[in-house]
Fold this sequence. Notes:
By secondary structure, the chain is mainly alpha-helical.
Amino acid sequence: SRILVKVSSSDGPWSFVLRLTTPDGQLLSDVSTSAVAPSPEWPLPAAVPAAAPPPAHLLRLLHERVDHTPAGNPGARSAALLDLGAYLHQIQPGDPDQHEAETVLAEAVKLQPSRYGFRLLAQATTETNDRRKALEAGLQLGAGDPRERGLLLLALGRVYMEGQRQLQAEQSFAAAATETPALYAATLGLAEIQAGRGLLSIAEQLVAAEQPRHAALRILQAQADLLMRSGRFNESEKIYRQILDASADDLEALRTLFSRARTRGAWPAVTASPRFGAVATWCLAGDSARSARGSPARSTAPRNGTSSCSTTTAPPSSPMPSSAMPFTASAAARV
């Protein structure tokens, strides 16, 4: 059987993932992929003419909603502008030099200031200082959704981190974690600061305290990374395997576990493993191709002291084997 996939995009960024599994979620065997027809004579299936009315143009409808909202109703006009600005920023950015989303959202918060509006404005703003000002303006508002205040503090902490202002970032992350405990990302930010200071044990304690409260892969990933950096390889590998049990194509977990096995000299058994074989084969094929060209193998020495095969940079001469595609399709698409 053949499955023909067609992807069309008229404008704007796009991404695409196709994952084929058995009904119970297991990997398919004997699957091959190709971007060309099986043979020059193979006819492409003809599309069935559309009989339904043309689809609605959401962007046009959002513009019309703004145009039809009276200026005398600032609340309704601000809400319409927020919806339009969110669409322009997240769905169809357009020309970044025009700053259309930023202009629309700035008008929205001017008509009716809100924490949500200032957070959207900060996301759409490209200048770091303007992002900080928008977040601080949202935090100065007295009333509003407390969760939005936590999100503003979290975003402000990240802005401070980008500017290497760790003390201010630590204060923002701590406030976000205290006021909105559900925002575990704030605790991860605090852990990142402590790890950057070399206080890995404190960072591990922060992340470990969040793990029982939130069933999130990001927490497990941070915990595994910190343990690896501390040299506690066995504990880290155990958590990476938990990650794979929840997300079988987690590329970082696959890469790290294969790297550890390769360091121990156990890579032949790993290559034959159904779980790691696809990534291992791709890594080794990439190294072989680089060696044939006289280039050094794509291997680094990360902070955990293990050799790391770069599965995301395999050269054209060593393409990913077709047997790996059903296993790592979504991971490759994210890369």
